[in-house]
Design a protein that fits this description.
Blueprint lengths: L5 H9 L4 H11 L11 H15 L7 H9 L2 H7 L1
């Protein structure tokens, strides 16, 4: 993984599950008839964190974007995208 992964990592950090997705994931986990695979936003954010750790100082160019994402309340992120 190199610097080409940085835009994808930003999108993974910004990931949020909609109410509908949360509801479907919850319902899918309670049944066994149909297998549905979902990736929760929390898992994407965890994977992005691991990616940034792997890149180390190489990812420093994205510090300003990460600061904005991590310091602005989640409710306001929808207006920025």
């Amino acid at each position: 993984m190199g610097t080409n992964a940085l835009p994808s990592l930003i999108e993974m950090i910004r990931a949020r599950d909609s109410f509908l997705k949360q509801t479907v994931m919850n319902l899918a986990s309670k049944q066994t008839l149909i297998k549905l695979n979902f990736t929760a936003a929390s898992n994407l954010r965890y994977q992005a964190q691991a990616g940034y750790q792997a890149l180390g100082p190489t990812a420093k160019a994205q510090d300003p974007q990460l600061i904005v994402i991590l310091w602005i309340p989640i409710a306001h992120l929808d207006g920025l995208a």
